[in-house]
Amino acid sequence: MGNEKALSRRVFLTRLGVLGAVAGTSGLLPRLSYASTSPLGLLNVVDLLRPVLDQLSRDTMNGLAVFVVPGPDAYSAAQGTPRPEPGAMEARTPEFLIRSLDNFLPFPQQLARPLTAALQTGLAPTGLRLPSLVISLTGLQVGTVDQALSILLQNNQAVPLSLAVALVLNLAATQVDPAAVNGPFLSPFSRLSFEQKAQAFALLEGGDAALVALLDAQLPQPLHDSVSGVLEFVAGALLEFSGFGSYSEFGVFNTTTRALASRPVGWQLTNYLPQGVVDGWDDFLGYYQNRRSVTG
User: CA torsion, points 75, 76, 82, 83, in degrees to nearest 10?
Assistant: First the structure.
């Protein structure tokens, strides 16, 4: 069984196109016991890393949001579909995605932690760099995503769903284009073209055998053999959430006054209520056609 798992991982990494390309770098580094080597302690190190991982998550959500509703932003231009009208970035869709994933969707840690561990295994050979090298007062150098995840998994704090989703998208991105580990932006997924992002979603929705094998091997019972279904559901939900967030009033809704601060992007794109908000329609004033009673 151990040889089968090792072979599956090697096949996966070979298909990823990076096996051997990172020999002698982060892909061969052992997991570090940061809890014992840092004078600040594990929790403080984790607190330093969370904002950095949050940057990676947000950048990934930027690339996801414009995949569904492009606009005049740099992310849309990078994927090859810039548009003059406002899009997901102007609608604050990435913020909508992060809040929805982290605060409103139930995601048990019994699934989150082993899934994140599997993603850490898959991302290690890519040498994917963090947004910035974390040196700080820890006395440590944490420069790659897999190193940061190794630290994160050494404590019992919750793993945000937005981070797990971002890691899944970035792992799929490196499978579509191994060169996406380098380039503009912070995340490999945001560096893909529109067509390549579609290929990444095809991998998730189609249950790519190598991707499923790697993730499934890390999950506890009774979750074995459920990865393909989870990935398919997540892929569909992400596209739906991105569209819903972009066309909703989220970006301009003031939760204190419970009023719109400006005209929502979705209204502009659909020409909804072109004359502004109305309190009602004249046709519905009083009784319809002056009727006072109805007979059978």
Answer: -110
